[in-house]
Specification:
alpha+beta, Heat Shock Protein 90, 3 domains, five-stranded antiparallel sheet, cell membrane, EC 2.7.13.3, histidine kinase, HATPase_dom, HisK_dim/P_sf
Length: 474
């Protein structure tokens, strides 16, 4: 069921209103239908009561001088202007035939009407049957085949028959009346009313909600691209209702404050980098006067380590706000160029299968991420195997090593700044614990992610670490 529920605010609001309106109109239709049914039943009871009461012989106004028919039935005609009623029938037996059942609800209604008119009831029977199965109707049809047509009756319709035997009387007075069908105009009116309500209410609400959701959609898109476009695009123009305008204005102010803080941070980091690199360069020159070659090499390595760590820290600080634009780049060529750098240095790197594909990238940053991952693979696994594959709309760069891997509970922590694992991944092997952090930040900067998983061998043991950079191609 959830698959059919809209996920947007506009869709959910329109669906809720549409369902509420449908429920309300359904309840209204049911109530109107029941009211129409009650009106029909009440009119039917009054019609039957009128026929039974106005029978001239029952009221004693005139006597039927004709002889009884052989079947024991005599008939009298009762007619009111504008009504097409069958003649009231008089019989010595009840109108209830074998196999038929009485209608208690209609009997009670008719009884109340007759009693209010002062009729003393001995016996009362009310039943319903199909018009074409009524003996009196069949008799009239034999005389006049157009009997039903002239009265506008349907042979399949319902005929309600009421038999009254007054107290002290020895004959039954039998009245008949077809049950009218509910007016189709009522249901058609409800349907037309529902359609008009849908057009006016749902259409108007859709217009109002679109004024609200359009600026919210623009704001959502702006927030989703917040990291990559901060400071490079003009502020979002406030639009929509006042609440949405205030929200957009507040967002623009927040974005401006964040941009100012990041600018201040970059200036501060640039100054720190300059102030630290200058004395380090001077110190690198001074150690050349150290006579002990071993000590001089150690000091130079320390200075190089500090310089490298400083570069990593500054790069990590700047990766959140790049200045160079995205450019569509051939990934296979970029991966091959980084592979060739390490191959030229004589490193144990292997380039596996690659597929040609392009993606919007900042090539300099992506090379930095690949170098960090390949360096880690060489440092801890003695070998790096590189591959590039396409999975749907995602480019997957895989770098595998043959090292000891990382325990599952430490994989997430290893991508945090300055995090280092066991003794095989410590400071003495080089690095400050920023390589994976920087690679993850670069991947996320491009809308992708960095995944680390242990490679499992045939015996179930760990045979190395697999690093994947997954990038969207669109």
């Amino acid at each position: 069921m959830r698959r059919f529920v809209p996920k947007s605010l506009l869709g959910q609001m329109l669906l809720a209103v549409a369902l509420a309106l449908l429920v309300a109109q359904t309840i209204s239709a049911v109530l109107l239908y029941r009211a129409e049914e009650n009106r029909i039943e009440s009119g039917l009871a009054n019609e039957l009561a009128f026929q039974l009461i106005t029978d001239r012989q029952a009221n004693g106004r005139a006597a039927d001088r004709r002889e009884a028919r052989p079947d024991g039935v005599r008939q009298r005609g009762q007619r009111r202007p504008g009504l097409r009623r069958v003649r009231v029938e008089r019989a010595v037996t009840s109108p209830l035939a074998q196999g038929e059942s009485r209608d208690p609800a209609r009997e009670e209604t008719l009884r109340n009407v007759l009693q209010r008119q002062g009729v003393v009831i001995g016996e009362l029977v009310v039943l319903s049957r199909q018009i074409s199965q009524d003996p009196f109707v069949l008799q009239r049809l034999r005389r006049n085949p157009r009997f039903l047509e002239r009265r506008g009756w349907s042979s399949e319709g319902e005929l309600v028959v009421a038999g009254l035997k007054r107290q002290g009387a020895d004959t039954w007075v039998i009245a008949r009346s077809p049950r009218p069908q509910p007016a189709r105009r009522t249901m058609i009116g409800i349907i037309i009313q529902t359609l008009i309500l849908y057009l006016v209410l749902v259409g108007g609400l859709a217009f109002l909600l679109r004024r609200l959701t359009r600026p919210l959609a623009q704001l959502t898109k702006r927030v989703e691209g917040f990291g990559g476009t901060l400071g490079t695009e003009p502020p979002l123009e406030p639009s929509g209702p006042q609440d949405a305008r205030r929200l957009i204005t507040a967002h623009n102010a927040m974005e401006g404050r964040i941009a100012a803080l990041l600018d201040e941070k970059n200036v501060m980091l640039g100054a720190i980098g300059h102030d630290l690199k200058t004395p380090l360069a001077a110190l690198r020159v001074r150690i050349e006067s150290v006579e002990n070659e071993t000590e001089r090499a150690r000091m130079a390595a320390t200075i190089e380590d500090i310089t490298s760590s400083l570069d990593d820290i500054l790069s990590l600080a700047r990766v959140g706000r790049p200045t160079d634009p995205l450019e569509r780049t051939e990934l296979s060529a970029l991966v091959a160029s980084v592979f060739e750098e390490f191959e030229d240095m004589g490193e144990n790197v292997v380039l596996g299968e690659t597929q040609r594909m392009a993606s919007p990238l900042r090539a300099t940053w992506m090379r930095r991420a690949l170098r960090n991952l390949i360096s880690n693979a060489l440092r801890y696994g003695k070998q790096a195997r590189i591959a590039l594959a396409r999975e749907g709309d995602t480019a997957v760069i895989r770098i595998a090593d043959s090292g000891p891997g990382i325990s599952d509970d430490q994989i997430a922590a290893m991508m945090e700044p300055f995090a280092r694992g066991d003794t095989s991944r410590n400071r003495s092997t080089g690095g400050a614990g920023l390589g994976l952090t920087l690679a993850r930040a670069i991947a996320e900067q491009h809308g992708g992610k960095l995944l680390l998983t242990n490679r499992i061998g045939a015996d179930g043991g760990v045979v190395g670490l697999l690093a994947e950079i997954r990038l969207p191609l669109a």
